[in-house]
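Late entry, S-adenosylmethionine complex.
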Amino acid sequence: MGGSKKRKRKEERGSIHPKNKYSENPPDFALLASLYPSFQPFVQYSHRHAHPTIHWTDFNATRELTRVLLHHYHALNWWIPDGQLCPTVPNRSNYIHWLEDLLSSDIIPNTISTAGKVRGFDIGTGANCIYPLLGASLLGWSFVGSDVTEVAIEWAERNVSSNPHIAERIEIRKVQSDANTPCVEGLHAEEESVHSGKIDIDNEAVPLPSLPLDLHVCENKNYCGPPVLLGVVKDDEKFDFCMCNPPFFESLEEAGLNPKTSCGGTSEEMVCPGGERAFITRIIEDSTELKHRFRWFTSMVGRKTNLKYLISRLWGVGVTLVKTTEFVQGRTSRWGLAWSFLPLVQKSSIPLPEKKNMSFMLEGLQRQHGAFNVLEAVKSYFSLHGLSCTLNTSSFTVDVMASKNDCDSILKNELLITHKSIDCQPTRETSNGSSLDFSFGRLCFRISVFQQIPGTLLVKGSLQDRNSASSAGFSVIFQKLEEALRNKFCTKPV
Ligand SMILES: C[S@@+](CC[C@H](N)C(=O)[O-])C[C@H]1O[C@@H](n2cnc3c(N)ncnc32)[C@H](O)[C@@H]1O
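Prediction complete; structure with ligand written out below:
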């Protein structure tokens, strides 16, 4: 009962991007079977299903489905050897269309692409090379696709050269697998060589690089493999975006947990020490060096707990904005995570979210920072902008009253106060890329702080007035408060 409700909710949220070829018309297996004799043996007809289906646990069936989908709907020739990761086309297309939305959103300036030509970097393109093939054929984008394994490079190149109409747009780049990036502290040398099978470490301590992120929290789970972006992106290169479907898992056992599908996948493709959390943390590390050489840095994230962790890492390294989306396919959810270091663009008027209740989590707080400190920071944040506030220590709330001018003051000054260290002009832009037109007289809201578990607090805001003009103002101010608190409490020392 609970399960079916949950499933229904997911289905209601919508599982497929509206621009996706398959959003209105799911693949027609009967038609494909009639057109492609090689696909026929895999198609099952049963009175239990309204439409013909395939055995999702059969690698040969899922690979043949991908081949015919790419051929029939995308005019692409494609193949992978046995056991390599087999992509699901509708699902991978969702990521491409989300990137398309990000690139056309104008939240950050388009400083990179020339003459409307979009150039992307696919980290770990795999033997299947699926993202460059889809991005080039659907949208005319150019790509560099990187990978570490010989088999991925060989087959990605084959998949590119068997499609001469787009081959010029895709470069496959081998990452030197013997050029392991140094490991940040956490792993014992012994564990390192066992887990990665690539790192040749004597029993001596490895010299540690000074990195802007503090990874102590994920002890023993750090990425110690070959370079990811730094050392692979060339000195003179700029990209509109990078994308990545990272090795999600820490072990092959974990990778094999879903017996309901067979998409293949070798250990090199699916597993890395520390799993996706460590791999994406390395992308974040690299992005702090490469900054404006990419308009958007993005990655797929497989676990919600990792998504939360990575978002708080991002605010800690001074990004100007973070965007997320949920990709739902069947019963599986994945998340898209995007960030940028470019200054936000000032815009005139875009509708704002009109919410009366908002909340966010502050995670990874140090021991000395409890609910009371955060509450005090909330009060001084608003007092600093001249708003009238009352702190109630027994209910752990701050009641705030703001006039139109007070709100203006927050929007005009906030970025100067909280983001002194980043290259960001004060604008009226919110993290959602919207701007505010105040048409209310006074705003009353309550901020409450709740302890969840040690080191994690929930901050809630509730609007006391009920008109929608106020709720637009409240949404923006609450987002500004969130940025300020994250900046104050979630930034780790360099
Ligand atoms: C989960 S697979 C994704 C393959 C393909 N992009 C897809 O979506 O199906 C992850 C890929 O990352 C590659 N990989 C692992 N470490 C890498 C690194 N440091 N740089 C580039 N690729 C890497 C693996 O060899 C593997 O092909």
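Confidence is low (pLDDT under 50) at residues 5-13, 184-219, 413-439. Will revisit in the morning.
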